[in-house]
């Protein structure tokens, strides 16, 4: 009997998905800290090094729409292992890059792996756990989603300051190798029989539309929104996505199943979580600038100020998972979470040079705690009424829209701060203009209020299956099934 037949598949899927998603999410935040240092090492302007981040995002946007079809066609195990291997190998190559063009090329390859990892990992979890145990899935997903963004600035600051920027890429290698080895030995590979033909038109339009739009919004704050390239790429991206909607709604087996928007629960939870992504990722980017350029903290100190946010998410997540979700359902939790998270963002806007670091950490902790009230219920409920054969395409759509929301959030909040002016003259000297960062945080808070209010349209009765307790509530899940061992 093969090892995969003896391994508890729920735990095996959880381990591989968590590890793979962790390095993918970590990579989106850890690299930003190193941009100035990379520019100095390669003797190029910091603006040129932005291509390291943008190349990754564009590659991610191109490949992500195909992840659902690939999982259905070749099996989630094969796609997950392939994606993790590509991401890991590309990480090693990024760390060894000798020129900026080499680094950008390897980041594009890395984006191919990253674009597959997150939706396929999410699909594996939802296909493995029944609706009554989806709250457990969300508690698993919160580990990389909570800790990776918080660890990114801390680890990136440590490596950049004390070791080398190359280690922000090398850190992915041992985790990726372990995930591939464990997955190859321990994951089962259920047959997929509903992939359908490859939707080439949908793939081209989705990849082109998402990548052009993400490129445009990423470049907008730096180049200016009146720049011809920014206008052209944003307009082309919107046109591509509009054409995608027309084509996909007429295609029997679409690459992105837009018909899922007809599902009220999927639509309302995704709307709320997308607005959350716009606000949250805008704040993650803004506070890093606020603390370093506005208040004068180092990259490492800035990361340590943000880290309590992850602890807040994890601690609050335990309460939601064990007590609150099954008792109150998603609607009330998401509404309260949106309002409280927005309040914490508004409190962060009051921070100044005389504010105690422990006050900032306290705000970060409660921001994270409130954020879990949106993240966990929305992820748990979103697929409650989605058919099993639609889950892979649904997670692709879910992740693609979240990614676009994150890019729009960073671009939008940065544009607001830039419009106010991040510096001003005081006594003839250039000084940080804290009002710019504060206005950006307040705008993010308003968007977060929108996330909470949009959850008013969620109906708890639609998510009833996810609120039921399993027939046998599992407490300890063994890695290796004892019955299988006895029969082997």
Characteristic key phrases:
488 residues; mainly alpha; Growth Hormone, Chain: A; two-stranded antiparallel ribbon; 21 helices; globular; disordered C terminus
Which CATH architecture? Answer: Up-down Bundle
Unreliable segments (pLDDT under 50, ≥5 consecutive)?
Answer: 473-488
- Secondary-structure element series: HHHHHHHHHHHHHHHHHHEEHHH
Kindly provide the name of the CATH class. Mainly Alpha
Secondary-structure-based class equals mainly alpha
Total helix count? 21
CATH superfamily descriptor: MFS general substrate transporter like domains
| Strand content range | under 5%
Mean pLDDT: 85
Report how far the terminal alpha carbons are from each other.
6 Å
Spatial strand order of the main sheet: 1-2
Number of domains: 1
Tell me the overall shape.
globular
Question: What Rg do the Cα atoms give?
Answer: 22 Å
- Main β sheet profile: 2 strands, antiparallel
Helicity range of the residues?
A: over 70%
CATH topology: Growth Hormone, Chain: A
Q: How many beta strands in the DSSP annotation?
A: 2
């Amino acid at each position: 009997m093969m090892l995969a037949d003896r391994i508890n598949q729920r735990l095996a899927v959880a381990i591989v998905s968590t590890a793979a998603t962790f390095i993918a999410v970590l990579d989106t935040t850890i690299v930003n800290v190193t941009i100035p240092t990379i520019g100095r090492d390669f003797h190029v302007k910091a603006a040129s090094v932005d291509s390291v981040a943008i190349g990754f995002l564009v590659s991610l946007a191109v490949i992500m729409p195909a992840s659902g079809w690939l999982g259905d066609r070749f099996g989630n195990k094969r796609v997950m292992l392939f994606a993790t291997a590509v991401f890991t190998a590309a990480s090693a190559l990024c760390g060894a890059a000798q020129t900026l063009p080499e680094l950008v090329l390897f980041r594009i390859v890395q984006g191919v792996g990253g674009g597959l990892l997150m939706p396929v990992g999410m699909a594996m979890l939802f296909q493995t756990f029944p609706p009554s145990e989806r709250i457990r899935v969300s508690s698993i997903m919160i580990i990389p989603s909570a800790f990776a963004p918080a660890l990114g600035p801390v680890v990136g600051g440590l490596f950049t300051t004390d070791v080398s920027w190359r280690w922000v890429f090398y850190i992915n290698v041992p985790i990726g190798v372990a995930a591939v080895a464990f997955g190859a030995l321990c994951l089962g590979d259920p047959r997929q029989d509903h992939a359908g033909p490859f939707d080439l038109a949908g793939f081209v339009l989705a990849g082109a539309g998402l990548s052009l739009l993400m490129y445009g919004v990423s470049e907008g704050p730096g180049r200016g929104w009146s720049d011809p390239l920014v206008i052209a790429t944003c307009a082309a991206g919107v046109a591509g996505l509009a054409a995608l909607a027309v084509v996909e709604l007429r295609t029997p087996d679409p690459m992105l199943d837009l018909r899922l928007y007809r599902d009220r629960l999927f639509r309302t939870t995704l709307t709320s979580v997308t607005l959350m992504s716009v606000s949250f990722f805008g704040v993650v980017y803004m506070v890093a600038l606020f603390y370093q350029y506005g208040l004068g903290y180092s990259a490492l100190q800035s990361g340590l100020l943000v880290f309590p946010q992850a602890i807040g998410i994890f601690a609050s997540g335990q309460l939601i998972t064990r007590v609150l979700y099954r008792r109150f359902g998603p609607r009330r939790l998401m509404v309260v979470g949106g309002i409280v998270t927005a309040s914490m963002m508004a409190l962060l806007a009051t921070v100044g040079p005389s504010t105690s670091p422990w006050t900032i950490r306290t705000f970060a902790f409660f921001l994270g705690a409130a954020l879990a009230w949106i993240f966990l219920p929305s992820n748990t409920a979103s697929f409650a009424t989605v058919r099993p054969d639609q889950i892979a395409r649904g997670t692709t759509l879910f992740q693609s829209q979240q990614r676009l929301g994150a890019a729009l959030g960073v671009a939008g909040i940065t544009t607001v701060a830039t419009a106010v002016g991040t510096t001003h003259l005081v006594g003839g000297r250039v000084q940080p203009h804290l009002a710019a960062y504060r206005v950006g945080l307040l705008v993010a808070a308003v968007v977060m209020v929108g996330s909470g209010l949009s959850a008013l349209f969620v109906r708890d009765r639609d998510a009833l299956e996810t609120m039921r307790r399993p027939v046998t509530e599992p407490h300890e899940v063994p890695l290796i099934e004892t019955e299988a061992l006895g029969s082997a």
